[in-house]
Each structure stands twice: as C-alpha cells, then as structure tokens.
Amino acid sequence: MPLKSNFITDLAQEKRLIPLLDSYYQKHLKLYDFERVHSLEQQLQGIDLVLTHKKTGETFFVDEKAQLDYLNNDLPTFAFELFYTKNETLKQGWLFDAKKKTQMYALVTNIQKPCDNFTECNITFVNRQKLLSFLTEKGLDEDFLQKRVIEHLGFHGKMELPGLDLRKEGHIHFSSKNKAEQPVNLVFQLAFLKEIGVAKEFI
Q1: Which of 13, 28, 64, 154 lies 20 to 30 A from 38 at CA?
Q2: 35 within a domain of the structure (yes/no)
Q3: 169 inside domain
C-alpha cells in the first residue's frame, strides 16, 4: 500500500499552532518586534516571521519548523531536511536550498496538545549561516552529503557521519520505508547545537 503524505494535515496543524507561538513571541521577545508573514511567495522563500531589533532596526527572516509528528513528546533532537522524493525524483530539501532567504530557524519542540488545543511548546532559535559554516568546517557540505545520499538511496534508518558522534551530536537519517516523501534528514541533538553556539533556547 502506498504511503500517505501528511502535507495537508501538517499545514492545518501549523495554522492552529500559530496563536500559541505568537503569544510566546509577544510575551518573551524583549529586544525585537515581530511581524508574521502571510504572503505565500515569502513563505515559499522560507520566511514565516520578520524580527526587527527595536534599537538598531536590523531585521532577521525566520522560518518556523515544528515537530508536529511528535505531539506530547519532548524529543532531544531535531531533523533538518536535506532531500526528499517527489514523482520518484530526488529533490533538494530546505536546509541547503539557495532560494530560501531564511536567516534563522525557530525550532518548535515539546508541543503539547492534550485535547483539541495546543497548550505549550519550546522554541529554539538556530542561526542558519552558523550551522552551514559548521557543516562546511566539518567537511559535511552540500556536495558531500548529496553524494552520501545518492550512494545509499533505498537505505532506511540512522547512518553515522564523519566528525559527528552518533549518539551525542548528530547523524543522517533515511526514511525510505515509513514516509511518502522518503525524506533524508540531518538530525542533531539540540543540546549539541547550543553547545557549539549555533542555537539558543528561546522558551
């Protein structure tokens, strides 16, 4: 039986999550004003929020990524999309997509939904350029990872990467058997991203 895509369901869930996220930003963002983006064109460019520093006027484009597949679970990791499959063709994921204008990722984890409504979550901000620079320094740039993925198409599960501790830092994960889009993700321990100065917990 073909695997069913969760794309439409995820979009509906994301819209229902927005009020909770906005309430957190309003309460906890002390140095920045935020503006939620409604333009589909900008959203496709990886911009869900625009943060503007209240004193300097400097702006940051933020892409929100929520762990909607793991409601009511506090996972210590987060998956960054490298590639996925569409019409049996390998497509580039959002992490290395040069068309994306994203400067920061807002990683939404530990999403609690005991009944019909979302009640709480955690938000971790990740500086995209710092993350990409870290990967380049480790020799895990786009070219290397693409070759690794192509060499192992059809593989399912975790795969160790050179320079990363599989258990404490990160790994590559192939979902070839349980998801319709067959995503290949770079999975990092959130604590490790904070430790190397790439991420900062917001809430």
Answers
A1: 28
A2: yes
A3: yes
User: What residues make up the domain containing 48?
Assistant: 7-201
Which residue type occupies 41?
Answer: E
Pairing type for strands 120-127 and 104-112 reads antiparallel
Instruction: Let me know if residue 166 belongs to a domain.
Output: yes
pTM of the model: 0.92
In a domain, 21, yes or no: yes
Dihedral, 76, 175, 108, 48 alpha carbons, nearest 10: 150
Number of domains comprising the chain: 1
